[in-house]
């Protein structure tokens, strides 16, 4: 199945947002070996901040984009088929896509953290690295609310949340494909209403319910809705106008996340014809790297911290452009190697599709 190149580009940008957002983990209080916090005299000292400040300050929205993109891609892949996709095929695809790299990076982070504990008498960045949290990661439930804090390869929490939504998607949409647009709309408005009226502190503290599950559900099924709107609204000019209106509304007054993110996806989709003509291969290639970038950047970070500490290097090095470029280069390089020599091979053996 041909990929949607504009969505692959947005997926790559979202992953890059998270990488830059997490650059703060090199500093205090996350990195206990660092000599400074991000801000010094009310001014950030992160490299290239004047050019990348939007990514440094709002890169956490990259995860929300992932939720939205997942909904669009799932609708694109599974809801156009005339036959009903069997559960075995659906969940095997998800397993092939997500678990092998998760398991590999989990083991690698475990080894690095054990080395740090033995050498420096402390864990790096994430401190809840006990057997209990390892089991949560092993069963892909580290973001469901059972956790006591960040642990092991922390970024995987958002993927574990998506798995909950996958089950809803399968039973509500793949098993019964009728009225998909109506069901998606009802789900989105219902979850937004719950988010507005329910005491979220009670949900989190008493019920151990991660409220990001609500965010994930809202954005995922918004992605499904956008997929159908993309098919219904044939005119690209009208679709672009819709996206432009929504982005203006999202920025008017208080920032409205659940309007802003869909508007960006709509605008990207309007560029699909141009991208397919000139840049499809490049953007599809970048899209292939995103899961690797997302899971490899934390192991790269703690490896760099370990090497710096072991060799008594000055941690002021993290403020330099050289270190910043090194960090990104390592993540990109490892993600490329990971995709071609690990992920792609295992997905092929497990018959993964898109």
What order do the helices and strands come in, and which of them pair?
Blueprint: H1 5-21, E1 39-40, E2 43-44, H2 49-58, H3 61-78, H4 87-120, H5 131-138, H6 157-174, H7 180-197, H8 200-205, H9 212-232, H10 236-251, H11 257-269, H12 272-278, H13 280-288, H14 290-310, H15 321-349
Antiparallel strand pairs: 1-2
Task: Describe what this molecule looks like in 3D.
- By secondary structure, the chain is mainly α.
- It has one domain.
- It is built from 15 helices and 2 strands.
- The protein has a two-stranded antiparallel sheet with strand order 1-2.
- Helix 1 crosses helix 2, helix 1 packs across helix 13 and helix 1 packs parallel to helix 14.
- The radius of gyration is 21 Å and the shape is globular.
- The model has no long low-confidence stretch (mean pLDDT 90).
The SSE string, one letter per element, is: HEEHHHHHHHHHHHHHH
**Rg from Cα:** 21 Å
* Ends distance: 7 Å
Spatial ordering of strands, largest sheet: 1-2
The stretches of 5 or more residues where confidence is low (pLDDT under 50) are none
The total count of strands amounts to 2
- DSSP helical segment count: 15
Helix proportion: 55-70%
Secondary-structure content class:
mainly alpha
Mean pLDDT across every amino acid position = 90
Main sheet characteristics? 2 strands, antiparallel
From the spread of the alpha carbons, the general shape counts as globular
> What percentage of amino acids are in beta strands?
under 5%
How many domains is the backbone divided into?
Answer: 1
């Amino acid at each position: 199945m041909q990929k949607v190149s504009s969505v692959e580009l947005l997926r790559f940008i979202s992953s890059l947002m998270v990488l830059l957002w997490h650059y703060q983990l090199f500093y205090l209080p996350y990195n206990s070996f660092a000599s400074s916090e991000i801000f010094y005299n009310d001014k950030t000292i992160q490299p290239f901040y004047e050019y990348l400040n939007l990514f440094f300050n709002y890169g956490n929205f990259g995860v929300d984009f992932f939720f939205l993109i997942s909904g669009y891609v799932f609708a694109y892949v599974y809801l156009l088929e005339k036959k009903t996709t069997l559960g075995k095929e659906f969940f095997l695809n998800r397993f092939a896509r997500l678990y092998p790299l998760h398991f590999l990076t989990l083991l690698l982070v475990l080894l690095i953290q054990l080395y740090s504990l033995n050498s420096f008498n402390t864990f790096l960045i994430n401190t809840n690295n006990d057997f209990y949290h390892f089991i949560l990661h092993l069963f892909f439930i580290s973001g469901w609310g059972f956790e006591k804090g960040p642990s092991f390869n922390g970024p995987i929490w958002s993927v574990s949340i998506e798995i909950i939504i996958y089950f809803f998607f399968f039973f509500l949409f793949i098993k019964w494909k009728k009225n998909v647009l109506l069901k998606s709309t009802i789900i989105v408005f219902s979850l937004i209403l719950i988010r507005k009226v329910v005491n979220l502190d009670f949900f989190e503290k008493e019920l151990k319910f991660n409220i990001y599950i609500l965010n994930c559900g809202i954005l995922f099924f918004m992605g499904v809705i956008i997929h159908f709107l993309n098919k219904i609204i044939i005119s690209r000019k009208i679709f672009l106008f819709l996206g432009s209106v929504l982005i203006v509304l999202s920025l008017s007054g208080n920032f409205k996340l659940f309007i802003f993110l869909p508007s960006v996806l709509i605008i990207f989709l309007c560029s699909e014809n141009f991208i397919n003509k000139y840049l499809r291969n490049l953007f599809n290639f970048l899209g292939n790297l995103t899961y690797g970038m997302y899971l490899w950047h934390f192991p790269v970070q703690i490896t760099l911290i370990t090497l710096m500490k072991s060799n008594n290097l000055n941690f002021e090095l993290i403020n330099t452009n050289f270190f910043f470029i090194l960090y990104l280069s390592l993540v990109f390089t490892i993600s490329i190697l990971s995709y071609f020599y690990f992920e792609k091979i295992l997905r092929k053996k497990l018959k993964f599709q898109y």
